Every structure is written in C-alpha cells, then in structure tokens.
C-alpha cells in the first residue's frame, strides 16, 4: 500500500447528510475515515450510505465513547494507512476547496509545528471566528489585525479542520478520553505547547463550521454567547473545573481566569428560563464532579440520567 500523506478523520453522531463534507474532503486527502460514535439506526444508515457512495472507510463504535475516544480510534486507523498527517473534522464543517493544501504548506514550514488550523467561521449573523491566541491570562479570540497575518501562533486549535502531524502525536500523546467531549482540543493544545511544539493558524484557509448551539446577543458585547443543552452544561462546567484543579496542565494564570469564567458560566446558565430545573441539576452535578475530578461519560456516573 502506498504511503498516505493526509488522512481525514470525521467523527459523527446522529449525522445528517454527509455527502457535502465527503465530497469536499476526498479530493483534498489521500483517504477519509468516518468514525461513527454510536448513532441510532437512521443516522448510522446515512453514514453507511455516504461512505459507500464516496469510498470512505466507516468505523462503527456501537456506542457513544466521546469525541476524544472517537478521534483516537480514527487516528489509529489513519496511522495504519501510513498517514503522516491527520485532518480532524466534525460532521458540521465544510472545508474550502484549497484548505488542506494551504494547511499542508504551512505545517511543512517547520518540523516543530504540531498542528495547523484554518479560520473556522460560523454560518450565521454575528458569527464567531474561532481562532484563539494567548492573551496572558487566557486564550482569547484573535483580532481582525491578527487574522490578516499569513500565519498566527495560537494558544490552541479547535479540533474541526485541524491538521495534526502524526510524529507530534507520538510525543505529545493522544486525545484525553476521560474528558469525553468539551475542552479536549484545549487540553491537547496545552500539552503540545508544554512539550515545545508550535500551534499555528492559517487565516487564509477557510472552514465553514456550525457549533449547533443557540446564541444570545447581549448589549455592549460583540461576541455572541452560545447557549448549550443541559448535558453540555454538565460537561463544560465539569471539565473546566477539572482542568484548573490540582495537577492541572494549564498555566497558572489561565487557571485563575478559567476559574472566574466557570463561575460566570454557571450563573448565566442557571438563570436561563429554558429547561431551568434540568440545567440546575446538570450544573450541580458538573460542579461536584469537576471539583473532585470525577470524569468519564455522564451516563456511566448517572445511569438514571
């Protein structure tokens, strides 16, 4: 088998049509692997049909193991194909026709670049541009001036659209599976930088990205606030608290800022009228588990839901 240069790994969960994403990625990559994270029959059948039609490999996990575990399974499959680079993607992102080539050009400029990412932009009014730079106390969105640069050193890269060097993964390690979903990319990025690797954004490379959340616009605030489902309230609060606790890989100054942010996040979401009782329950459980660093899938801790 010839050695593949770039293998795309797409993680799906109850996906809609995948033809657009596969059609955009297959011409740009040497192979595409889809890892389905325990979708029910309709979503799984859509994934099967799309992979068969486009010649992509499908890995069916049979249960929801979380985004990190699914990425790790896909990365293992990509390495088995001889990949030098792995392009991570979720099911709700569409790359521009030149995105992979632009990322590949950037990552090959320096052998100490662990990963490069595009400029992910949401498809809605007031859309976030999800590139984060180190502002000292925490990662913050890049400014317009920074996004005008051809290359930008970043604090971490969001997973979707991220091109990762396989040799860097061997040194840094895999995605952290006990986080399950939120902050997986943040935690890996912190480990990468602590190990002396670089993370670089390529703003000219574009990715249309959908977070799937509702947003709230507050007076005097340019950036929208994303409103997550109650189960995500649990994971976001829990994982934030776990990452700022004892033995945290985060810089000390980030831990201070993320602790403050976690308090704001809990107060804001507790005040939302939608599914208030459920949100309060999830936030209480996220607080308790985060402070004790009790991680893993929510269902394994609370089988009664």
UniProtKB/TrEMBL annotation:
Keywords: Glycosyltransferase, Transferase. InterPro entries: Glyco_trans_2-like, Nucleotide-diphossugar_trans. One of its GO terms (molecular function) is glycosyltransferase activity. Gene3D superfamilies: Spore Coat Polysaccharide Biosynthesis Protein SpsA, Chain A. Pathway: Cell wall biogenesis; cell wall polysaccharide biosynthesis. Residues 29-173 form the Glycosyltransferase 2-like domain. CDD domains: GT2_RfbF_like (cd02526). PANTHER family: GALACTOFURANOSYLTRANSFERASE GLFT2, RHAMNOSYLTRANSFERASE WBBL. Belongs to the glycosyltransferase 2 family. This is Rhamnosyltransferase. It comes from Actinomyces gaoshouyii. The gene is rfbQ.
